[in-house]
Amino acid sequence: MTVEVPNVSIDELVLHGRVRLEDLVDREGLDELCQTFVTLFGIPVRIYSSEGALLGGVAGEQELCAYVNTTTQGRKACAAIVGTVKAREPDGTGDVVTTCFTGAAYRILALEYDGRRVGRLIVGPFLPNNVVDVPASLLGVDPSVAKDRAWSLLGKMPLAKAETITRIAAHFKAALDLILFSGHKALITNKMHLASVRESYRQLEEKTTRLQEAFDRLKELDRLKSNFLATVSHELRTPLTSIIGYSEMLSEGLAGEMKPEQHEFVKTIHDKGEQLLSLIMGLLELSKLESGTMRMTMRTIRIDPVLSDVVSTLTPAARKRVIKLELDIGPNLPDLRGDPDRLRQVFLNLVENATKFTPEGGSITLRARTVEAESDGTEEEAGLSLLAPTRTRVEVRVIDTGIGIPAHERPKVFDPFYQVDSSTTREYGGAGLGLSIVKRLVEAHGGTIRIEENRPRGTVFVVSLPQAPLSAAQATSAT
User: Fold this and answer.
1) What is the pLDDT of residues 155-196, one digit of tens each?
2) Does residue 453 lie within any of the structural domains?
3) Domain CATH code at residue 148
4) Are 66 and 142 in contact (CB under 8 A)?
5) Last residue of a domain, one of 101, 125, 160
6) 469 or 109: whose pLDDT is higher?
7) Is residue 265 part of a domain?
8) Structural domains in the chain (count)
9) Among 58-72, 142-156, 340-354, 417-431, which is the least confidently predicted range?
10) What separation in angstroms does the CA of 250 have from each of 175, 240, 259?
11) In Å, how far are 224, 270, 417 from 279, measured between CA atoms?
12) pTM
């Protein structure tokens, strides 16, 4: 099927097929153009729109007209002539003359642009060169009109031949045409720019709507995923707990003595069950964090005992792998606001992760220091930095001498289920949930976590936690 595209002009597209004189040039410009021609030729000119509105002209009244307007009948006759001139449209030739009872004349010419009539040009009043005496129509308009007075004032009216008026009108139209062309070009450019902006805005609104719909769908899918993981994990944990419990009872001989090979099989069942339970618990914690249902008991605590407990808990596992585990706590660490159990979980996870990726003979160090918060560089903060209270934080670094994390992988390791080595034959196990849970727990405490490179090898995880708000007495003593 062939679709015919109509031949549409730019004017029809952006101006709806209508060019108006008042849209192409401003009134001040038209007034200046009219004033120029009055100055050059002494003949009044006025410009009217196609709807009859005065767009430009030079104000002023001929002395003869002012004199006639002093009489009652003359004033009425002048008003009638002015009304006729304003209302009269040029004929097919675009040129018509209206004669006044005073003997003066008005030349009414059509103004056209780009083949369209856009207005009228009225030249006059002027006195034709064939007027050699006071017209009878002037003397008869009112008995009080004096012939001598009328003749002297007729002599002051601009005198012009028809050919002169034609040349004046032609020059005026040529000058106006140049102005209209420039205005037309600017108007089309402006209209096309506005049309382009509107179209761009419309497309942007459509894309924003689609993105919002996609975001809402993804958000709903994420919620359903979290609910699914929570439900499945909870349902899996119950039978898995039974499997682990029964395997422990079998290992202890509660169901009878087992052969060494059977004991090894039961131990494998128990170990794999514990591993699977750890994964399920991770899924449960992740779903709670994502849904905001994880409960945390926030109180004022110190980080020292939390880190000491982590080191004492994991020291046996580190010794088994011939890894040196050290704790380095700086002096005068401030109090923190947090849940000690969740913070313990954070650093247990980080140290266990470091232990898994550190070879024999390596080392892992937990180092805690007090630091001053860095300014975010905003203008307001920079201007008030001298008056703002000091923002103290505690930074805990987990430093290992392991295999390290490539720079391009560091932004991704905190994503759920992400593995640096995602192959089926990877050397190191895990579901990729630990660091994601760590990040969410740290952020729940108002903190941040980042990765630094430990040259020449290894990785440094930096956990930054804000100081607990000072009490009124502490704030007073600090100042």
Assistant:
1) 888 888 888 888 888 888 888 887 777 777 777 788 788 888
2) yes
3) 3.30.450
4) no
5) 160
6) 109
7) no
8) 2
9) 417-431
10) 109, 15, 11
11) 20, 14, 11
12) 0.47
Domain-embedded: residue 154: yes
Which H/E stretch holds residue 301?
strand 299-301
Of the candidates 83, 126, 74, the one whose C-alpha atom is nearest the C-alpha of residue 103 is 126
- CATH at residue 423: 3.30.565.10
- Which of 145, 160, 175 is the endpoint of a domain? 160
Burial of 141: CB neighbours in 10 Å, binned 0-12, 13-18, 19+: buried
Residue 369, classed as helix, strand or coil, is: strand
What DSSP designation does 21 have? H
Name which of 350, 362, 320, 361 is nearest 439 in CA terms.
Answer: 350
Cα separation, 57 vs 33, whole angstroms: 8
Q: Do 311 and 459 fall within a single domain?
A: yes
Tell me the residue range of the domain where 91 lies: 10-160
Residues in a beta bridge with 108: 96, 122
Residue 1 maps to a domain: no
Structure tokens given for 245: 């419990």
Of 354 and 8, which is predicted with more confidence?
354
What is the DSSP secondary structure assignment for residue 131, as one 8-state letter? -
Question: The tokens of 21 are what?
Answer: 């004189």
pLDDT, tens only, 341-385: 889 888 988 998 888 888 898 999 999 999 986 544 444 444 444
